[in-house]
Amino acid sequence: MTNKPFKIKTRINSFKHAINGLIHLFKNEHNSWIHALAVLVVATAGLFFKLNTFEWVLVTFAIGLVFTAEIINTSIERLVDLASPNHNQLAKEAKDLAAAAVLIAAIVAVIIALFIFVPKIKARINSNNEKLLVYEEKNLSENIQYCCSWDECYALGFGQHKIIS
C-alpha cells in the first residue's frame, strides 16, 4: 500500500463501498433478515420498557456485534468460495468457524437482552398483579377467603380471594 494524499472524494467513495456492502447483505443474506427482525423486536421492546441510556448502549453494542460478525462471516464465505470452488476440508472448517463467530455473537446478544428485559417483564407482571389485587380487594364481599400465594388463590377461584403475605 502506498502513501497517497488524503482526499475527501476518496473517503466518500469508501463510504459508498461500505453502503454497497450493507445493501448486498440485506438483499442476499437471509440471516441478516432474521437479525433485522430481532432488531425491530428489541427496539420496540426497548421503547415500550423505556430503556435507560446504559441499556440502550448495551443493546446497540449487541446489535452491532451480531451484524459485524455476520458481515465478517459472509466475507469469509465469499473468499473461501473464490479460493476453493471445489470441496476442501480446510475451506469447510474456515466457513464453520466463521459461522460459529456469528452464533457466539447472537448468544451474547440474547444474554444481554435477557439481563435487560427479564427484570422489566417481571416488574410489569408484578405491577399488573398488584393492581389486580387492589381492584379485587375493593370489590370483595364480607366472605373473603385468604390464601398465601397467587397460585393458591387462582386454584381456589380467581376473583374471590385476597393474597396475604
How would you characterize the overall build of this protein?
- This protein is mainly alpha-helical and 165 residues long.
- The protein has one domain: Helix Hairpins (Orthogonal Bundle), CATH 1.10.287.3610.
- It contains five helices and two strands; from the N terminus they run H-H-H-H-E-H-E.
- The chain has helices spanning 8-28, 30-48, 53-83, 89-138, 150-157, and strands spanning 145-147, 161-163.
- Helix 5 (150-157) links the parallel strand 1 (145-147) and strand 2 (161-163).
- The longest helix is centred in the C-terminal third of the chain and has 50 residues, at 89-138.
Features:
165 residues; mainly alpha; Helix Hairpins; two-stranded parallel sheet; 78% helix; 4% strand; extended; disordered C terminus
Can you describe this structure in just a few lines?
By secondary structure, this protein is mainly alpha-helical. It has helices at 8-28, 30-48, 53-83, 89-138, 150-157; strands at 145-147, 161-163.
* Annotation field: number of helices: 5
Strands, total number = 2
Biggest sheet overview: 2 strands, parallel
Broad structural category: mainly alpha
Spatial gap, N to C terminus: 72 Å
CATH topology descriptor: Helix Hairpins
The figure for the number of domains is 1
The first-level CATH class name: Mainly Alpha
Question: What would the principal axes of the Cα set say about the shape?
Answer: extended
Q: Mean pLDDT, nearest integer? A: 84
Sheet with most strands: strand arrangement = 1-2
- The helix content is over 70%
Regions with little confidence, pLDDT below 50 for 5+ residues: 139-149, 158-165
Topology as H/E string? HHHHEHE
The percent range for strand residues is under 5%
Instruction: Please identify, by name, the CATH architecture.
Output: Orthogonal Bundle
Radius of gyration from the CA trace?
26 Å
